[in-house]
Design goal:
Helix content is 46%, strand content 16%. It has 10 helices and 10 strands. The longest helix is centred in the C-terminal third of the chain and has 24 residues, at 221-244.
């Protein structure tokens, strides 16, 4: 924490901001507060300029090589689960996915798109290495569905995707400004990975078409195949993440998600075409 103190000055009070890494703190002086973080991506400056995250106030490189960033701390709250279906979320996501500035910056930072074929191979290899494929019929069926739906994911236009669109990463300020924070997992990918996550876990299915229209795409069987492909992939990645931490209860929860998803895909998505 000494580096954070040096970054802002000894007249500021520094307290932990929480989180898993311990790299985030809050600095307070009089009636002003700043959100401090260590070694944030240079991508943060472009996100701030695009008004997608709270304003970046300063960036300082310390003697030990760490980079400390300070962002404006705004009064507000995390978005509630039921608010994720609101159109302002669709509007913000569309703004992000259509931003050439964000895409250019991520590419300058060395980020390259990973194709769905590469991601399918990577998750298959990881699950095999962990011994999870032979142990769970749900995972075997999921891999089969990923393979069957894979052609629908090819040839798409890529954009900057946040890749962690849980409701607690969206901040609504008291002035009704919506921000999307925690960009550590950002990648260049198919936007369906982002909006598909929101649709599946937050938006009632009968409202999908209206939400997609507001976002700016037309619904189609191929689009729904793409959405479910990325939803399945996301759940499998969580399975491996929980497995590495030996959290068996959460693994069982994810396997239950896979059973439900596989059943829906078998009886609805795959019935649209002969496979």
């Amino acid at each position: 924490m000494n580096w954070f103190q040096k970054a802002v000055g000894k007249e500021w009070d520094i307290t932990p901001a929480g989180g898993l890494t311990g790299d985030a703190y809050i600095a307070a002086k009089d009636d002003r507060r700043l959100f401090l973080k260590r070694n944030s991506s240079p991508f943060l400056a472009v996100l701030s300029a695009e008004d997608i995250v709270p304003k970046l106030v300063f960036t300082k490189r310390m003697e030990n090589g760490d980079v400390i960033t300070g962002q404006e701390w705004l009064s507000g709250r995390e978005l509630r689960s039921e608010e994720m279906q609101q159109y302002r979320v669709a509007d913000l996501l569309r703004k992000i996915h259509e931003s050439s500035e964000l895409l250019y910056m991520l590419m300058r930072l060395g980020k390259q798109p990973v194709t769905p074929d590469e991601r399918f191979q990577a998750i298959t290899d990881q699950l095999e290495e962990d011994g999870l494929v032979s142990a769970h019929l749900e995972i075997q069926q999921t891999l089969k569905h990923l393979w069957l739906l894979l052609p629908a994911t090819r040839g798409q236009q890529y954009a900057v995707c946040h890749c962690d669109l849980h409701h607690n990463n969206l901040i609504l300020t008291t002035s009704s400004q919506l921000y999307l924070v925690d960009w550590d997992n950002a990648m260049i990918a198919d936007p369906a990975m982002d909006f598909g996550f929101i649709l599946k876990w937050y938006v009632p299915e009968e409202d999908w078409e209206a939400w997609l229209t507001r976002y700016g795409v037309n619904s189609s069987p191929q689009l729904f195949e793409r959405i479910y492909w990325y939803v399945l992939l996301d759940v499998l990645q969580y399975v491996t993440w929980h497995w590495q931490r030996r959290d068996m209860e959460k693994i069982q929860n994810r396997l239950a998600d896979l059973r439900s998803l596989n059943d829906h895909i078998s009886h609805t998505i795959l019935s649209w075409s002969d496979r």
